[in-house]
Structure formats: C-alpha cells, structure tokens
C-alpha cells in the first residue's frame, strides 16, 4: 500500500507487492550502477576501488561505537534512496509506528538482498534501526532522545552534536548526512506544533511530544547550519531526597526547604540557566497540602505537581503573523481571578513580577517562582528592575517595600564549574533599613577547594540563626519545633565539618 507505483489497493494484506517496484526500479536503475553483481566481493575488499569498499573489517565496529565511516553513510544513503523510491512517505506517516517499522524492515531487507550488500545480521539490524529513525523519527537524534540520562542535546550544524550528561557537556559522534537532513528533522519537530522554520522565520520554539523543549535557529541567522537545542524532559523529576544524595544540599537543608514549603512562605528560587531552579521548584511544591488550589503559570509546562487540585497554564508565543501572543503577565493576572490559593510561576522575567508580588501580598501566600540571578541580592535587584522596566511608575523605595512585604525566602541554586549543582543559599528577606532591603542567610554553601580530578569541595553550613523571621508562621503551622531542631543541627554539622 505504500508503493508509489504499485497501484493503490487500500487493503492491508497486500503489503508484499510494495516490494515489487524496488525490484523493478531501484534494483535496475540505481542498484546496478552502485552494487553491480560483480562488486559483491568488493564490499569486503579494501583494495577494490569501489566507492563503497570498506575500510577493512572494522567498518561496522566503528558504526557500533558510532564513529561511523563515510562508507557506512554511503551504503546507508544508497539503501535509503532506494527505499524512498519504493515507498510513499506520506502514507507511511499515517499508520502506526510499529506497522510502519515492519513495512520498512521488509523493504530494506529486500533491497539489501537485491543489491547484494554483504552484512551480518547485526549490521543489518543497525542499518535498519538507523533508517527507521530517519524515516519515522528524528534520525540520528533518536538514540539520544531515548536516553534518560541526557539532559540537553545541542546540535551545531550537521557535523557537531554535544550532549549534557550528569552536568558535563560532552561531544558526541552523532552527525547528520548534511545540513539539509538536519533542517528536515528540525522541520519535522516544529511541524508538530504547526510551525515552520525557513529563511523567512528562522527562529522557532517547539516542544516534543514527551514535553522536551526545543529551540531551532536556522541560516542565515545560524551561520554554520541549523542549530537545534533540546532541553530534555525528565520523566522522573528529581526529589529533594535525590538532591541530598547528590550532595546538592544536606539533609537538614532539605528539611528546612520542606518546612518553608509547608508553612506557606513566599519563595523565589534564583539561579543561572540549568542550575536546577525548575527542579527545586518542583521539589518544594511536593510539600503543598492536598486540599490547596494551585495554579501554575509556565512558558512550557514542566512542573509535575502531584496534588489533586491543580490548574496548569501555559503562555503562547505569537503565531507566524505575529499575533495571538499570551504573555506570562496575562496568565498571572488571569490566574488571580481563578481563586488560587497558591500561584506558581515557572519563570519570572518581566512585568509579571509585579502581579506575582501583588498576589503574594494579598493572601496568596505560599506562592513561588523562579528567576534568573546569580545571588539572592541580585535576585532582589532583578525583581526591582523588572518592575521598573515594566513601566510601573513607582518610586524605588515603594517597589522595595513591596518586595520586602511579599517575598519571604530566596533559595539560590548554582551549577558549579565541575558540573555539580548546589543549593548555595537559603536566605530570608527580613525588612528595610532606610532604602536598603535587609536579608539574612539561614544556610550557605562554602567552597573549600578542589580535588585532583577538578571536583569542587565544599560544605553546607547553618549560620547560627535560631529563630528565623518566619518563626511565627512555622509556629502557626505547628512546625516550630522541627524548624528549631533542623537549624540547630545544620549549624552543628557545618561547624564540625
Ligand atoms: N541538584 C541536581 N543535581 C543533579 N542534576 C540536577 C540537579 N538539579 C537539576 N538537575 C538537572 O539539571 C538539569 C536542569 O535542571 P532545571 O531544573 O531544568 O534547571 P533550570 O530550571 O535552572 O534551567 C535537569 O536535567 C535536571 O534534572
Ligand atoms: Mg527552568
């Protein structure tokens, strides 16, 4: 049913005839030129001078370690072209993936036989996998997309792909046939949300079906070919216990955050890109009670709240004509009319800061958000400048008072230069002195050095504050004893270490 030239019988049981055209066309026209019967042996003979001659027997070993030789790509592209000739891709995309795979598998085996390509079963399997990925999925990206240990995939043109694994950025040997193949894959990704990338609109944000976030920027803006960046969606978000296990925070620190989440402090999570802000926000939301109505506002729904009473909102970028945008500010404002008990803003980066602070100030305590800043102090000034730049004609002091009145705690996340993530500050906003906002640290991370492997050494320590500013709140929620114990043991830990 996928044979372009095999008539168009709709019935499923005539899959076999689709192979006929391969035999007739591809075999006759292309195949003979490249894989003429007499060259059968030459595929195994490095001296034969055929364009497909293998560089010794290691050809497919190389393929396995994914340092694939040009020969592999030559063979693949010949088989691929024959396949494309034989099937109708648009029809193929309409049946389910497994059936399509089977169909491709049959045709490819047929082509391999026809063209006298000598391969072991393993080699064939691998080639088949590759071709299926090209036809049905995101090509060379597929093996990376299925790996759950990869957090980011960064493609810089067809020849260079980096990944981030366990905080480290590594170069991979994944490569695309050429920039056209890469562009096609980008196109396929963004077409899922009804967008296109081309010279006219060379930038596009999209999302994979699994929730991973994608950015594509293509020439002429990207000089060396399409640049594709994927922030992979973690199926299982890290929990506070995981962060403790990784040493991102101590057990006491985790308990402190748990209490902060439970007793409805208004929290800002501050940090750089990829420092773990969203992860941390997700962790904190775990301690929200089940009977609270929570509304989340995000650019791309990443948070995974477990509570039963959650409304998730997502901003919308403008369409191709530049219309229809719904900004974060509009979402936050709307959500105030939805009777929220807690408002969670994925990332605060503009005038919505004002609305979030207002919300925090007016009975929606326990609201949270993340923002991009390198220290708690910087977070405060960033909030202030977001409001100033949002066009609110308020005196600086008024804005500061508003910040002070709304934010209780700032949690700072950082990605250190060895790739590890640490929670470096748990800091309270306690009031104003003159024109200055006063903060007090409850927990700090101190770097003490670096070991021989470049791993950063350091320790978390309590600052000796026994009664934080949110003490009354903790008492109200009956968490005062636990809070006191936690702070005390955090201090002893730090002091002794
Ligand atoms: N404490 C941590 N230890 C190890 N990996 C982490 C930690 N926190 C976050 N990550 C991972 O780092 C990546 C970026 O985290 P994310 O929370 O999305 O960062 P941000 O929101 O700051 O950009 C994710 O893959 C996440 O799983
Ligand atoms: Mg984030």
Termini, distance in Å? 71 Å
Taking the sheet with the most strands, its summary is: 9 strands, mixed
Q: Tell me the overall shape.
A: elongated
Number of strands: 15
In helices, the fraction of residues equals 25-40%
Strand order of the largest sheet: 9-8-10-11-7-12-13-14-15
Mean pLDDT: 82
Radius of gyration: 29 Å
Beta-strand percent range: 15-25%
The oligomeric state of the chains shown is single chain
Given as residue ranges, the uncertain stretches (5+ residues, pLDDT < 50) are 1-66
Structural class: alpha/beta
What ligands can be seen in this structure?
adenosine-5'-diphosphate, magnesium ion
Provide a count of the helices: 17
Q: What's the gist of this structure?
A:
This protein is α/β, with parallel strands linked by helices and 497 residues long. It has helices at 19-34, 59-64, 70-86, 89-92, 97-114, 121-136, 142-145, 179-191, 240-245, 251-262, 277-285, 328-336, 352-361, 376-389, 396-406, 471-476, 480-496, and strands at residues 150-156, 161-165, 168-172, 203-207, 213-217, 227-231, 267-271, 294-298, 310-314, 342-345, 368-372, 409-415, 421-433, 436-450, 456-462.
